[in-house]
Amino acid sequence: MSRKQHEIDRTLAGGMTVAQLIEALEDMPEDAVVVVGSDYGDICHTEQALIVGKIDEIDPCTERLETSAYSHSGIAIESIVDAAECDDDVPSAEEATRVVILRS
What pLDDT shows up at residue 33? Predict the structure, then answer.
């Protein structure tokens, strides 16, 4: 496993699973709007409220997680434009962590 993949897996290990998210939402009002709070990264640590507009699972044929110095989490979702762009270091579907994206 590459160093980059190890960093991504370590970050993802601290996240919730779909089952944990469903359990946490069970006691919430069903008509409430869902937003994702994210630190904007400014000096005041303003928390953005990103509206959830769509939910997807990462499709390894079209996108992947990559390490990123521009992301507060250290990882970013990167589009795969060309099959030639795929790295040999990208784990197979069987060994990759499945990731669900709450998209704004």
Answer: 96
Query: What parts of the chain have a pLDDT lower than 50?
Result: none
Residue for token digits 């669900």?
Answer: 100
State residue 17's pLDDT score. 96
pLDDT at 42: 86
Residue 76 identity: A
3-state secondary structure of 59: coil
For the CA atoms of 13, 15, 20, 26, the dihedral, rounded to the nearest 10 degrees, stands at 180
Q: How far apart are CA 36 and CA 85, in angstroms?
A: 30
d(CA 45, CA 68): 19
As a whole number of angstroms, the distance between CA 25 and CA 4 comes to 32
Residue with tokens 């990167």: 78
For residue 89, the model assigns a pLDDT of 53
- Non-local (6+) Cβ contacts of 83 within 8 A are none
